[in-house]
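Input C-alpha cells:
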C-alpha cells in the first residue's frame, strides 16, 4: 500500500543533494510513502503513481522532530518550584526527590496514563521519535518499572538510576553508586538502550566526575550506549568525560570552557542543547554559535520533565534556539531533527530520504521559517497516514 503526499509548498528533506541548503528543501513537492517508509521525494510534477493520495493543501512538510532527551515517567507536580524560581530561587536539582517520592507512590496505571498523555501531546506538536529516561524511581524495582513503561512507547530508553542520590542514601553516595552499578543495572539493562548520569559537582544532589565515570563504565560494560547530563549548572568534568567515553551525546552543555568545546570538536559526541531549561530556570543560555563554529554537531531537545523544564514542544525549543542561542532557523530545525537522530545514533529518522521511516510533520504554514517566526503558535503536528498504524515508538 503506497500513499502520495502532495500539496507540499515546501518540503524539508535534510538531504542537501536534493535541494538547496542544509535542509535540502524542495518547493511544490510530493512524497511517496510505502509500508511505513519513504519511497520517493521530489517535485510534485514528477511524482510517481501511488495507491492513495493525501493533499496537505499548500503546507510545509518536515521530518518529524527527534526529541533525544526527555523524562516522561513520573507523577506529581512542581509548579510551585517554577513559581519560586521566577521570583529568584535557584535550580540545583533538589526538587527531583519530590518527584521521586510521588513516582514511587504511583501505580503503573497512573504512570502509564501520564506517559501516554505526554506522548500524545508531543505528537500533536510534530515529534515522532522520543528518548525517555528513568530516574524518578531510584530503587531497583521502581527504576525497572519506569523503564518497562517507557519501553512500551519507544526503543530509546535510558537508565538514569544515577539521577540524584535518593534521600535514604544521603551521605552515602558510594553505597548508592554500588547499588546503581550492581543490582539496579542488572534489573534495568534488559529494558534500556542507554545509560545516563547527572554529572554535576555543583549540585549537592548529583554526581561528581569520578562517580559519573564509574556509573557510565558499568553501563557500557553491560552493553548500554552512553549519554551524559553534562555542564548544566557549572563547567564541570561531564562534557570531557562524555567525549572520552565515546558518548553519543553530552546534554545541556550550558557552561563550557574552551577545552570542552575543543573536546567536542575533536570527538563524535553530539552536543544536545535544551534551551527550554534555561527558560524555565531563568539561567543564561548556551552559545550554539560557538559550538557550530567549532564544527560540533548540535542537537536540540526538550528535556521535558516536571522540574527544570516542563515543555513537550520542540517548536518552542526551535524558536528559543533561534532567538537566544544564535542559531539560524535552518540550523535550529536541522538540530531538532537530524541532530536529534545523530544524538541517538539513528540513521532511519531525522531526514526524508528514500528508505527512512515515514515520520512526517506538517506545518500550518508555507515554510519551516514560521516555526521561529511565529513562536507559540501551534503550527506543527505529526502527519497521520491512513496506512500508518504506527505511533510514537522510535
Ligand atoms: O535534565 N538535571 C537533571 N535532570 C533533569 C531535571 C530533573 C528535575 O528537576 O526533575 C534535567 O534538567
Ligand atoms: Fe534531563
Amino acid at each position: 500500500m503506497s500513499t502520495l503526499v502532495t500539496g507540499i509548498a515546501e518540503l524539508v528533506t535534510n538531504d542537501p543533494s536534493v535541494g538547496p541548503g542544509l535542509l535540502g528543501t524542495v518547493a511544490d513537492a510530493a512524497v511517496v510513502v510505502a509500508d511505513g517508509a519513504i519511497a520517493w521525494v521530489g517535485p510534485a510534477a514528477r511524482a510517481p503513481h501511488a495507491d492513495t493520495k493525501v493533499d496537505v493543501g499548500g503546507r510545509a512538510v518536515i521530518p518529524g522532530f527527534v526529541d533525544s532527551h526527555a523524562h516522561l515517567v513520573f507523577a506529581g507536580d512542581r509548579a510551585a518550584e517554577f513559581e519560586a524560581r521566577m521570583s529568584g530561587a535557584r535550580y540545583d536539582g533538589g526538587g527531583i526527590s519530590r518527584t521521586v517520592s510521588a513516582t514511587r507512590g504511583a501505580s503503573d496505571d497512573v504512570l502509564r496514563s501520564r506517559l501516554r498523555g505526554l506522548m500524545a501531546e508531543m505528537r500533536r506538536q510534530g515529534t515522532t521519535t522520543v528518548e525517555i529516561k528513568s530516574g524518578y524511581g531510584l530503587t531497583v524495582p521502581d527504576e525497572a518499572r519506569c523503564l518497562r513503561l517507557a519501553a512500551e512507547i519507544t526503543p530509546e530508553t535510558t537508565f538514569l538510576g544515577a539521577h540524584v542520590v535518593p534521600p535514604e542514601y544521603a551521605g552515602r553516595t558510594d553505597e548508592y553508586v554500588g547499588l546503581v552499578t550492581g543490582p539496579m543495572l542488572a534489573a534495568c539493562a534488559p529494558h534500556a538502550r542507554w545509560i545516563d548520569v547527572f554529572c554535576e559537582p555543583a549540585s549537592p544532589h548529583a554526581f561528581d566526575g569520578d562517580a559519573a565515570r564509574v556509573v557510565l563504565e558499568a553501563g557500557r560494560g553491560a552493553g548500554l550506549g552512553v549519554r551524559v547530563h553534562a555542564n548544566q549548572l557549572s563547567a564541570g568534568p561531564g562534557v570531557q568525560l562524555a567525549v572520552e567515553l565515546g558518548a553519543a551525546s553530552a546534554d545541556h552543555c550550558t557552561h563550557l570552557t574552551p577545552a570542552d568545546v575543543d573536546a567536542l570538536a575533536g570527538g563524535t559526541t553530539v552536543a544536545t542543547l535544551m534551551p527550554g531549561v534555561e527558560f524555565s530556570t531563568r539561567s543564561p543560555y548556551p552559545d550554539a554559535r560557538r559550538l557550530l563554529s567549532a564544527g560540533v554537531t548540535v542537537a536540540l531537545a526538550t528535556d521535558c520533565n516536571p522540574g527544570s523544564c516542563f515543555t513537550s514542544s520542540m517548536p518552542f525549543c526551535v524558536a528559543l534556539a533561534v532567538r537566544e542561542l544564535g542559531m539560524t532557523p535552518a540550523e535550529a530545525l536541522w538540530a531538532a531533527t537530524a541532530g536529534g537522530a545523530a544524538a541517538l545514533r539513528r540513521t532511519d529518522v531525522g531526514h526524508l530520504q528514500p528508505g527512512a521511516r515515514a515520520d512526517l510533520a506538517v506545518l500550518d504554514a508555507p515554510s519551516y521559517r514560521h516555526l521561529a517566526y511565529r513562536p507559540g503558535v501551534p503550527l506543527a503536528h505529526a502527519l497521520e497516514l491512513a496506512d500508518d498504524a504506527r505511533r510514537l515508538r522510535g
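The two ends are 22 Å apart (CA to CA). The pocket of fe (iii) ion (ligand 2) is lined by residues 69, 71, 229, 303, 305 (CB under 6 Å).
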